[in-house]
Amino acid sequence: MHTRLKLFLIAPTCLVAVVLAAQQPTSNPGNTAAGEALFFGKGGCGGCHEVNGRGGVTGPDLSAAGARSPEELRGKILNPSNSGTALAGRGGPSVVIVRTQDGRQIEGVRRNEDTFTLQMMDVSGQLHLLDKTKLAEVRYENRSLMPGDYASRLSTDELRDIIAYLSTLRERDLTKTAAAQIPGGVTYERLRNANAEPQNWMHYWGNYQGTHYSALKEITADNVSRLQAQWSIQLPGTSSLETEPLVIDGVMYTSGQPGTVLALDAKTGRQIWRFTRERKARNPNEINPFNRGVAVLGNRVFVGTLDAALVAIDTRTGLLVWETQVADSMLGYSITSAPLVVKDKVIVGVTGGEFGARGFLDAYDAASGKRLWRWYSIPAPGEFGNDTWAGDSWKTGAGPMWLTGSYDPDLNTLYWTVGNPGAQIDRSVRGNGDNLFTDSVVALDPDSGRRKWHFQFTPNDGHDWDSAQDVILVDRMWRGENRKLLLHADRNGMFYVLDRTNGKFLSGTSFVYQNWNRGLDANGRPIQIPGSNSSPEGSFLVYPALGGGTNFQAPSYSPITGWLYLAYTESGQAYISAPVPYEAGRQYIGRGRGAAAAGPNDPQPSAGIKTLNPETGKTVWDFKLFQGSNNNGVMATAGGVLFTASREGNLIALDAVTGKFLWRYQTGGNMAASPMSFAVDGRQYIAVASGDSIYCFALPQ
Question: How would you class 128 by CB atoms within 10 Å of its CB: exposed for 0-12, middle for 13-18, buried for 19 or more?
Fold first, then answer.
């Protein structure tokens, strides 16, 4: 589309809209400070136009208005509808007026439209997502919403001052957008009380507690067989989508291909805006080129990047607000999972475990992007736990904290898991210590980053059994006592129940076949079987294999059944190690899979979905899948349905009580994500990513 036409279609609405082709600015005398005051004051321009994050969003962003000549600016201010009349025949009218069935009239500018849907923004900046088939009238007018009387409203000097101010604006200035006060949007109080809004899915795990559960119940075990696809959107690229979208007030926010974030009409899948960022650096040895989701606070959406930056985007426009470099991707760092917003902070961890990059968790000011604290997962000399590392091995000890954590607002405690040690398989350089805080969950003060307690699942790990799995926070009766519990099914094949107030071990049971430990002692420390860890000679055939009994895919906890649901894989391998030199930015593994014969009691490999009773740790039911995966998770609902994604592309519905198969939909893609649920206008939807697309389902209307 021609630049002039494209700009005018989004419709100027107040004082200034820059719509003509760029020319070199000419000299224009005037008082720029007075012009800025007029722009955001008497002139009313800032009510509809923003400059560097300040102002309204109904009209075009004027942060680069100075690329136009003063003559162009003057013409648009004094004759706002002239250009609209000239262009309307080619691009359509600017102003849309709709009348609803109940007689309400909405006037604004069109953002997106097709035969059946209309996205428009009214003069207050409110976005309306409309079904045209349910409107009484849709009318278009070939004019601008911008007032046409500025020739009499402004004096000659005032007009000159405003033009002088606009002429100074050359590009969007992130130092100013980061400092801008962007009002409205999602409050922390709403995020904290997400369970009170089951129609919204406001966190990566659905809520702060990590339950990945939907309290919606329109879709039930009795009617799920009638579920139908409602829409899909293709987001092509080189990576399969692993994203789990958020939905807030009818708008879906989701990452797509790495570096891309979209806002969609959650009811129709129609795009509202798309943000794309080019990487500033690319590690030639990078792995896992994916992004799994975003976080939202206020009118900002936050996402991490493969070149280890944290980005804030304006939820209203899709424009960049600030960008902060978290780490150096050339050392192996990247950010692949959704951040977690806690109060006024954005909490984000990093990958890098395969590269020996020292792990950490950061907190950033949500408004400005300024780093507030950093907690290293591998302690330095003089810090608690450093003595569990031999010599200087802590420097390359890895311990990535890449998967999104959970948060207890009442205890004001952040719970975050830590990944594998480095080298990943070879333990020789690390010594025989526990290698804290790898393969652990740590409880942190979100205000300071101070560690409160930790619990380690696999000391001195030589299997790559990182603990990057969900931690579920549940308040319930447990063995006759009301407890604040932390539930965690670990990659090492063990299911743990901890007291989350202090990290005390309560119980631990195998949820898949495992032969590396004889049980857990009174403190939850595994009693390891000799020969089960990696070694130069190679271990025996150890269960679970490197991929673990489960992985980072979403489990789900239902408060109705009181059960934990998860995807599992049951397989084994031998672990063989060899010394490997550390090279910054290259993988630091130290061998991996070896050959070993199966033992007489070792089962055949299998995979599926199973239900655990946290009270006993025992399996309630088990639904077998043809293929297991690290990515595809589950979601329980109040309707008694458990939705599960499967590697072969099936979205499956099971009875949450019995495990009985109820329904499936074959997407035709390589599914690598977990399902989620939301509602718009009282109608429940199920969404999941598969291949390069996002699919959305609902019952027939």
Answer: middle
